[in-house]
């Protein structure tokens, strides 16, 4: 793991979920499906508030692979949001993307990295990059808030212009660590 | 038992299909759709079990002025049961799902599926907010299914009880990239499909 322990102040300074939302708009993404993650909270809200996007809550992440394929058949672009534990749910469905050459854009918030306080998140989080690689999905990393716009645009272009399956892995350092302490 | 003949049901539903867009779930449902006539606007699956209805949803949202039909089997539907809940949230008016329910996993040795033990898929779809959801047991019900697919206000769900037989294999093309491209070219035109 290459992340540093100290968290930079950039996460507060740059509204990185808004930057990702703007990138999705710029790349003409019209269907955004998700299984929620706290790290995706603001991006999910932005997508629901956007009248030019259909926000599609899923019961399990693999549904989003099928949705993205159907969207592409119909001439639309789709993005799929999840946390790293959801990657394991997607493995067989990813054969749809690799067999048919469907573009696929996954935005994955990482759990089980530096500072994780739930040990049950660690196995899938640590296996995520390799599991995606084995299933034929390219992985890109987003570590710093100020790189969000460039990284999201690059991932979307890799998906829709190079027509490949791509996952942008969003570092746990960027999203912050779930504390398990009561709010208020 | 007055269960229906699956090939005859699908042929009746896809006859004079006009501008209908079709997603066919893996196994016998895909063979049935191919037996009714291979068509560029049918997307047959050879894998990704459980995905058929979500592909139909993505397509229905992307093409709100076209009618979209998912034809699949009970085993494939059971693997993607959660997709009925996800469709129930979006409620696309142009989407219909037909489950050819032979109560068996036909491709793997005719083992009983959950529907053979009484699991009621149509009741699940109804509970998920489908506009209409019913079990169809006889030929008399097929006209209503057809009218729902082409003119009804969706999302619609029809669980059609069919005989647990194994009609001859009529296979669609198996090259996924070809299936994807021919569908987009037929729907979006040559130039758009290449983008």
List the helices and strands and how they pair.
The complex is a heterodimer of chains A (184) and B (195).
Chain A: H1 10-13, H2 16-26, E1 29-34, H3 41-49, E2 54-57, H4 62-73, E3 77-83, H5 94-100, E4 104-109, H6 122-134, E5 138-142, H7 148-160, E6 165-170, H8 172-175
Parallel strand pairs in A: 1-2, 1-3, 3-4, 4-6, 5-6
Helix pairs in contact in A: 2-3, 2-7
Chain B: H1 6-14, E1 21-24, H2 28-35, E2 42-44, H3 52-62, E3 68-73, H4 74-79, H5 82-90, E4 95-101, E5 104-105, E6 111-112, H6 121-127, E7 132-136, H7 142-151, E8 156-161, H8 176-188, H9 190-193
Parallel strand pairs in B: 1-2, 1-3, 3-4, 4-8, 7-8
Antiparallel strand pairs in B: 5-6
Structure in words:
- The complex is a heterodimer of chains A (184) and B (195).
- Chain A is α/β, with parallel strands linked by helices and 184 residues long.
- Helices cover 40% and strands 18% of the residues of chain A.
- The radius of gyration of chain A is 15 Å and the shape is globular.
- Chain B has 195 residues and is α/β, with parallel strands linked by helices.
- In chain B, 39% of the residues lie in helices and 18% in strands.
- Chain B contains nine helices and eight strands.
- At the A-B interface, strand 2, helix 4 and helix 5 of A face helix 3, helix 5 and helix 8 of B.
Give the H and E element order of chain A: HHEHEHEHEHEHEH
Largest sheet of chain B: 6 strands, parallel
- Computed CA radius of gyration of chain A, to the nearest angstrom: 15 Å
Low-confidence stretches of chain B: none
Q: Strand sequence of the main sheet of chain A, in spatial order?
A: 2-1-3-4-6-5
User: In what order do the strands lie side by side in the largest sheet of chain B?
Assistant: 2-1-3-4-8-7
Low-pLDDT sequence parts of chain A? 1-8
Biggest β-sheet of chain A: count, sense, barrel?
A: 6 strands, parallel
**Estimated structural class of chain A:** alpha/beta
Strand composition percent of chain A:
15-25%
What is the strand tally of chain A? Answer: 6
């Amino acid at each position: 793991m290459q992340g540093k322990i100290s968290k930079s102040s950039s996460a507060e300074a740059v509204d990185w979920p808004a930057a990702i939302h703007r990138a999705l708009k710029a790349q003409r993404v019209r269907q955004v499906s998700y299984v929620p993650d706290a790290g995706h909270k603001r991006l999910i809200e932005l997508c629901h508030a956007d009248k030019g996007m259909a926000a599609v809550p899923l019961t399990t992440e693999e549904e989003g692979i099928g949705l993205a394929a159907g969207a592409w058949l119909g001439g639309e672009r789709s993005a799929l949001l999840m946390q790293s534990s959801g990657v394991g749910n997607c493995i067989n469905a990813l054969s749809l993307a690799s067999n048919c050459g469907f573009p696929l854009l996954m935005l994955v918030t990482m759990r089980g990295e530096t500072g994780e306080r739930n040990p049950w998140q660690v196995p899938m989080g640590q296996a995520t990059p390799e599991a995606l690689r084995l299933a034929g999905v390219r992985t890109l990393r987003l570590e710093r808030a100020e790189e969000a716009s460039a990284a999201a645009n690059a991932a979307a272009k890799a998906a829709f212009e190079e027509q490949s399956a791509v996952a942008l892995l969003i570092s746990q350092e960027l999203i912050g660590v779930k504390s398990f302490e009561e709010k208020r | 038992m007055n269960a229906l003949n699956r090939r005859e049901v699908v042929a009746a539903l896809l006859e004079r299909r006009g501008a209908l867009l079709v997603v066919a779930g893996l196994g016998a449902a895909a063979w049935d759709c191919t037996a009714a006539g291979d068509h560029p606007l049918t997307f047959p699956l050879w894998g990704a079990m459980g995905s058929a209805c979500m592909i139909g949803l993505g397509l229905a949202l992307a093409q709100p002025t076209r009618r979209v039909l998912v034809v699949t089997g009970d085993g494939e539907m059971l693997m993607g049961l959660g997709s009925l809940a996800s469709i129930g949230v979006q409620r696309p008016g142009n989407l219909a799902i037909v489950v050819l329910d032979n109560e068996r996993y036909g491709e793997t040795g005719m083992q009983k599926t959950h529907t053979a033990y009484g699991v009621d898929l149509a009741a699940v779809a109804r509970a998920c907010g489908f506009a209409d959801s019913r079990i169809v047991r006889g030929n008399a019900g097929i006209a209503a299914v057809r009218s729902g697919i082409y003119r009804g206000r969706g999302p619609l769900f029809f669980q059609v009880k069919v005989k647990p037989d194994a009609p001859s294999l009529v296979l669609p093309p198996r090259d996924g990239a070809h299936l994807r491209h021919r569908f987009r070219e037929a729907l979006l035109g040559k130039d758009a499909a290449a983008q």
